[in-house]
Specification:
single chain; 307 residues
Length: 307
């Protein structure tokens, strides 16, 4: 595997014209506490290792006194720095959101620095989203870590991070390696199919939400849940609702009505006043902390790598 040295970083300074909560904005890009491609250091800086169209790159972003300072390393450094404002929510429009519930009004007021990130990278979000299908978060995060450690490459720059494989690299991972990573054949085959048409999928970053979702869902194994999870990150899609989720409908229903047992249909009905901003509404609901008390036991994880 290629070893990248910590060459001199390229630097960009940018002053957002609105409040910015760096950690909150970039939090959806982190795939678990041990994500090899994402870390937050003690000084609050956020580090990301990405596979850009120009090659691998590492980005460090820090904010203070109203200014953002970004450093980048590797062949993808210029690409990452050029898209820094979009990553930090410059394409987002929180003013388009009008709270219709007291809980959302209060969450919106308490988090003025929340922006919806836009990475401009589809495969980077699609693969971990596929890994998260029908399993616990811990299982998916463990698979992501193992796959990057085994099949990724060292990230450029001074931090010991990993860049995910190329599209071809994903496509040629042997079946036993997927098994050792705890990934069943249905999910691994979906990832391989997506990797084989990665260029076409990346075109979705320039599409409107409905068209972009259709493009992703042409791949067998990618449904509305996965498409929404990807486009929330790659496109900064403020209206991409995660339907088909085990927990979200019940959380939304409880937060907005105090009642349990909401399904997807009820969730969409409750979110209808926020048409165009439904994903933002869900983010704010999650930030409100109004979560229904757990009654049933947690879903038991299964480790197929031991079978």
């Amino acid at each position: 595997m290629t070893q990248h040295t910590a060459a001199a970083a390229r630097v960009r300074r940018w002053t957002p014209p609105w409040p910015l909560d760096l950690g909150l904005t970039l939090r959806p890009l982190r795939r678990g506490p041990g994500d090899p491609a994402f870390r937050v250091t003690a000084d609050g800086s956020v580090w990301r290792a990405s596979r850009t169209p120009e090659g691998p790159g590492t980005l460090r972003v820090a904010s203070g006194a109203g200014q953002v300072v970004a450093e980048a390393w590797g062949p993808g450094a210029e690409w990452l720095l050029e898209r820094l404002p979009a990553l930090l929510g410059a394409d987002d429009d929180p003013a388009a959101f009008t709270p219709r519930h007291r809980l959302l009004h209060e969450a919106h007021r308490r988090h003025p620095g929340l922006r919806l990130t836009r990475t401009g990278l589809v495969l980077e979000s699609l693969i971990p989203s596929v890994l998260e299908q029908k399993v616990t978060s811990d299982e998916a995060y463990r698979s992501w870590r193992r796959l990057l450690q085994r099949h990724g490459e060292p990230a450029p720059g001074p931090e010991p991070m990993r860049v995910m494989p190329t599209a071809r690299g994903w496509a040629v991972i042997p079946s036993w390696e997927w098994h050792r990573a705890g990934v069943d054949s249905k999910r691994s085959q979906t990832i391989v199919r997506a990797a084989q048409v990665a260029r076409r999928l990346e075109e979705a970053t320039g599409m409107e939400l409905a068209e972009a979702s259709r493009r992703l869902r042409l791949i067998p194994g990618i449904g509305p849940w996965t498409a929404a999870e990807v486009l929330q990150r790659s496109n900064g899609a403020a209206d991409a609702v995660t339907v088909g989720d085990l927990h979200l409908p019940r959380i939304v229903g409880y937060a907005l009505t105090g009642l349990r047992g909401a399904d997807d249909a009820r969730m969409l009905e409750l979110l209808s006043p926020y048409e165009g901003q439904r994903h933002r509404a869900c983010r704010l609901i999650m930030l409100s902390g109004r979560i229904p008390p757990r009654r049933a036991p947690r879903f038991a994880p299964k480790d197929i790598s031991t079978i």
